[in-house]
Amino acid sequence: MVASDGFAEFLREQLTPLGRITMRRMFGKTGVFCDGLMLGMVTDNTLYFRVDDGNQEAFTDAACFPPLNYEKRGRTIDLSFWRAPERLFDEPDELLTWAQAALAAARRVATGRERTAGRRQSKPHPT
Questions:
Q1: What is the pLDDT of residue 20?
Q2: Cis bond leading into 66, ω under 30°?
Q3: How many CA atoms lie within 13 A of 32 on its CB side?
Q4: How much is the mean pLDDT over the chain?
Q5: pTM for this predicted structure
Q6: What is the number of alpha carbons within 13 Å of residue 55 lying toward its C-beta?
Q7: Dihedral through CA 73, CA 75, CA 81, CA 82, nearest 10?
Q8: For the purposes of burial, counting CB atoms within 10 Å of the CB of 10, is it exposed (0-12), middle (13-18) or buried (19 or more)?
Q9: Residues facing 60 on adjacent strands
Q10: Quick one: 42 exposed, middle or buried, by C-beta within 10 A (0-12, 13-18, 19+)?
Q11: What is the pLDDT of residues 2-61, one digit of tens each?
Q12: Position 118 pLDDT exceeds 70
């Protein structure tokens, strides 16, 4: 399920200090974007932040399980989005800190994709 209008507005208000916050429905969920980078997803009014090697330890320490996942061919596929701790919604400054870490992870992921895409370009073959 996508984010309710109220929850989406709450997130926009809380995350505005990061940059331009937009939301987009995707795959039956709501993507949370800051300046075009997806830092989170919402499903059933539950916020999941982008996680990579740079911030995963904090999520593991906070026991933010399970990660967002879906079923495919009888297997569970975990995504790189982990549940934000509930306590963050009562602590706006800490919510913003975690969101900054998720945005940094989104930037690292985007940079990695750009490098990979550059390497995948085909080289001209001599004729």
A1: 97
A2: yes
A3: 31
A4: 88
A5: 0.83
A6: 25
A7: 150
A8: middle
A9: none
A10: buried
A11: 899 999 999 999 999 999 999 999 988 999 999 999 999 999 999 999 999 989 888 888
A12: no
- Map the chain to HEC letters: CCCCHHHHHHHHHHHHHHCCEEEEEECCEEEEEECCEEEEEEECCEEEEECCCCCHHHHHHCCCCCEEEEEECCEEEEEEEEECCHHHHHCHHHHHHHHHHHHHHHHHHHHHHHHHHHHHCCCCCCC
Radius of gyration for the chain, computed over Cα atoms and rounded to the nearest angstrom: 16
Specify the residue for token string 């109220």: 6
Q: How far apart, in whole angstroms, are the C-alpha atoms of residue 83 and residue 43? A: 10
For the record, the structure tokens of 44 come out as: 């059933």
Q: Which residues pair with 49 in a beta bridge?
A: 40, 82
